[in-house]
Amino acid sequence: MVQTNSRSVEFGAGRRCAMMRADEHTNEPKYYLVKRHLLGLLAEFEPGAPLPAERELAKLLETSRSTVRQALSELVAEGRLERRHGSGTYVAEPKLAWPLEMASFTDQAAASGLELQTSLIAAERVWATPEISELLHIKVNAAVHRIERLRRVNGAPMALEQSHLSAARFPGLARLLRRSGSLYQVLSEQWGVAIVEAVETIETAPASPRESELLGTDTGAPMLVLTRHSFDESGAPVEWVRSWYRGDRYTFVARMSSRR
């Protein structure tokens, strides 16, 4: 057992090893058996509780360190555990559920009772690629605002956003955004533009070195990548944005109903 200020994860060696031996007759890989047993234990402990070292776990569960390491790695990737460099492995905080709604990031955070901080990383003019020109209904090589922001929720990095908007339609947008953290608020107050419809996709990708640095995770860690193509009341495209979220810390919730 490892002692800290948080209650530590305890293992009854005899009981756990008996359970492992009982499951050895299944067709499941050995690391998955270890993972399943660890997962059953974690529900009993508070976030922040430390796990024993790999060597100790391997001895308690009568298996190899490589098997234990593989089980722990999957639990870390799933957000059940977190590794702290130079310290060890701990029970992770529960994932934050984030609703998929037609609302600004600022409004969603406020509605969920969360404290939001936004850092403007970049606000620059770039030239529209063929993909961006098609999405925004502008000419190839037309001027485009590229806005990159880091979102923090309750002090922890949550998302890295990169938005593209037509520079001709929204002149001076970068300057205005430096005064206000809400893009949708600026669009509404300055140009009378409201986002009423969007197409959103979700996929997974490994974190690049830059994304991992900004979001406080490891290079190659699983990311949830959202793209949103937003439209105004007339059906004209307003924004195309790609956002990177830590896959181990967040889960997305969409409410659906049947058409009447």
From TrEMBL:
Residues 28-94 form the HTH gntR-type domain. It comes from the Bacteria. Signal peptide: none annotated. The keyword Nucleotide-binding does not apply. CDD domains: WHTH_GntR. InterPro entries: Bact_HTH_transcr_reg (IPR050679), Chorismate_lyase_/UTRA_dom_sf (IPR028978), Tscrpt_reg_HTH_GntR (IPR000524), UTRA (IPR011663), WH-like_DNA-bd_sf (IPR036388), WH_DNA-bd_sf (IPR036390). PROSITE patterns: HTH_GNTR (PS50949). Keywords: DNA-binding, Transcription, Transcription regulation. This is GntR family transcriptional regulator. It comes from Pseudonocardia acidicola.
